[in-house]
Amino acid sequence: MYKDIVFVLCGCLLSLGGFAQSSSIESTLKQVEQNNQELKALSEYVESKRLELKSDNNLPAPQIGAYYLPFGEHSTGDYTEFQISQSFEFPTVYSARGSLIDQQSNQLALDYQTKRQKILAEAKSYCLNLIYLNKRLDTESIRVKQARQVFEQVQELYEKEQVGILELNKAKVAWMQEQFKVLQIESDIKNALLQLTNLNGGNEISFYLDEYSTTLLLTGKDSIWQEKQVQDPEMTQLKQLEVIAQQTLKLAKNKSLPDLIAGYNNQGVAGERFSGIYAGVTIPLWSNRNKVKAAQSQLNFQQTVTSSRTLQAHASFEKQFSDYQIMLSKFQEYEATLSGLNSDELLLQAYQLGELSFLEYYMELQFYRKAYDAMLDMQYQLYISQNQILKHQL
């Protein structure tokens, strides 16, 4: 029976029958994306900040003024004057600021995507953990049945006075230990489902899979890195900050152009009226001083930061990918070795024939079971690592 379990494990790793299971994980992630409260709140925040940014490019309020001068010594009628004017920056400033606002809005969208990716990666980790726990539960359930079978056999031998009370107690303790493992795994499953429910905005999620759906084999390292630079929001944010710095420099240069004022003026006394166009210019001799230099320095800084952090990210990716390949190679060796064993049945036969004492049987059985459990754990860790490497695909 143990051999059958191992063969099932090996056959499912690369099976094509996992497509339906894959859609189950994907549907769970879609639910989380739709119901997660943090993402809902962040979406509202991003929209409010986007509108706030757009308001920064509005024209200032028009100005209306009037004079009425009835006092003083004058032979003509009272003097009156009315004026309405609108001030505005040089037209190219609005264009440059509009482009900057668009880039800042894109940055806000990337902030949202970064948070979304983090939450979905966490949710997928819980899904992978549930698959691992379900595999463990299936295995431990079989072991409980085997331990009970051995206990019942030892109990029959004890009743026939062929074994002592110590051997009976050992068999009972072994059975109880396996039962406790099942209870512990069931508790871990409930906790993982609770974490998924929290990520899903408190909406309960029904998730049960006992096999992984995707292959452990990855595509070429270079292709993954190129894909990561384009799709990973944490990577694209660096480039976006550089674009924002470039647009800020362009805006600073345009703000060196004069501000303009245009309007209508009407004035006169005693039936004599004069009216016409009002115009003015504000020359930014001092208001924009050093701002272009500051924007240029910020751009140089951001370009350096982008280069530095990209190199760091690449070095981290190289290590992560290398560690993954080493663990995958080790796992494949474990898999190849254990797939040819039939340890449970062989040990049980040896025990039943009297070739092994119960203690010898139990110790040998634990050795092979630990190896199998280590393989399950290694497989789980590989999928968790793969989830991090391919996080940009979420």
UniProtKB/TrEMBL annotation:
Keyword Ribosomal protein in record: no
Signal peptide: 1-20
Coiled coil: 22-49
Keywords from the named record: Coiled coil, Signal
Highest taxon, organism lineage: Bacteria
Molecular function terms, GO-annotated: efflux transmembrane transporter activity
Presence of keyword Magnesium: no
Protein name: TolC family protein
Organism name: Fulvivirga marina
Organism taxonomic ancestry: Bacteria, Pseudomonadati, Bacteroidota, Cytophagia, Cytophagales
